Amino acid sequence: MATQVEPALLTNNATITEIRAEKKRQELTKSIIYHVGVGLFALIMLYPVIWLVVSSLKPPDEIFGNVTSLIPSEIRLENYIEGWAGFGGITFATFFKNSFIYAGLGTLIEVTASIFVGYGFARVKFRGKSILFGIMMLTLMMPTEVLLIPQYIIFTQLGWINTFLPLLVPRIGGGAFFIFMIVQFIRGIPIDLDEAAMIDGAGQFKIFRYVIAPQLTPAIITATIFCFYWTWDEFLGPLIYLTNPKLYTVSVALRSFTDATSQTNWGAVFSMLVLSLMPALILFIFFQRYLVEGIATTGMKG
After folding, report:
1. Sign of CA pseudo-dihedral 172, 178, 182, 183
2. Which residues pair with 203 in a beta bridge?
3. Which pTM does this prediction carry?
4. pLDDT tens-place string over residues 121-132
5. CA distances from 198 to 207, 218, 231 (A)
6. Angle between helix 129-139 and helix 176-187 axes, rounded to 10 deg
7. pLDDT tens per residue, range 213-251
8. A single GO BP annotation from the record (predicted)?
9. Taking a C-beta distance cutoff of 8 angstroms, is the pair 109, 171 a contact?
10. What is the domain partition of the chain in residue ranges?
11. Rounded to a whole number, what is the largest CA-CA distance in the chain?
């Protein structure tokens, strides 16, 4: 005997189905609007980079003759060959080597120093720690330009001009931003671990070596990536302290590549600009997971 379904039940089921369908349509509409908005925003943000890459492949007369076009009439790879040749008999291989030396050593010195200083502020008790930490935080608000003249006078007296010493030695004290970040990270590590290590007879160095340092990996990688970015892109310091073209970093060489007294080969300039972005881009691609993890972990434990 067939079961008879009540009309009211059928009506309720139909209504529930319609509500679910309507909810799915609304979610789909929101998703489309969200992705289109994010896509447009990403396009706006990336447009200068896309324009730069395309312009590095355009013929010289087409770069500023047809600025709005993102499709070159022909792909001119010679821009990269001409750009790499550099100027004054110095190729961009020398400038990239200088930048890697400066950014590599600068990052190593500043991050290593920041780790030790950060541990001291976070875990070691000493008189005047709060005052020193407050002074260090105040330096974050001090414009770099304020220190340029006194630093230049001191480094000139020391005979360090035209060497990498004025750019590297001040990093021995660490960077205020990275010290603050590492302090915040260490403060999130339970103090009980330190006390347990002390009961086992560990001193400050062993606590740092075996308890704190193994947990600092995300913060160290994040600090390293940021420090390398900022050092690689730094322009003012190398411009002031390095006057020998053989010591120029990429940022300074790119500025010198544009000659105001003659016609500039903009295709070659843009091609070297594209290559100058590669180290930072590769670093971000390979370590973006650690970068996000380090920022998120530091923020939660701060």
Report:
1. positive
2. none
3. 0.80
4. 998 888 888 999
5. 8, 25, 38
6. 130
7. 888 888 888 899 899 989 998 999 999 999 899 999 999
8. transmembrane transport
9. yes
10. 7-56, 84-299
11. 107
Output the 3-class SS for 162-196. Answer: CCCHHHHHHHHHCCHHHHHHHHHHHHCCCHHHHHH
Q: Both tokens of residue 219?
A: 């913060």
Residues across the chain: 302
Q: Which two tokens stand for residue 170?
A: 């001040």
Report how far residue 227's alpha carbon sits from residue 104's, in angstroms, rounded to the nearest whole number.
9
Distance CA 187, CA 194 (A): 12
**What are 102-121's pLDDT values in tens digits?**
999 999 999 999 999 999 99
Tokens of 174: 């660490």
- Alpha carbon separation from 248 to 55, 96, 163, 164 (Å, rounded): 25, 9, 10, 10
What b/e sequence results for 182-200 when a residue is b if at least 16 CB atoms lie within 10 Å of its CB, and e otherwise?
Answer: bbbbbeebeeeebeebeee
210 has a pLDDT exceeding 70: yes
Tell the residue number behind the tokens 């671990």, with chain if given. Answer: 193
| Statement: residue 14 has pLDDT above 60 | yes
According to the CATH classification, is domain 84-299 in 3.40.50.300? no
Task: Show Cβ contacts of residue 185 under 8 Å, excluding neighbours closer than 6 positions.
Answer: 118, 216, 218, 219, 297, 298, 301, 302
* Percent of the chain with pLDDT strictly greater than 90: 40
Please, which residues bridge with residue 90 across strands? 87
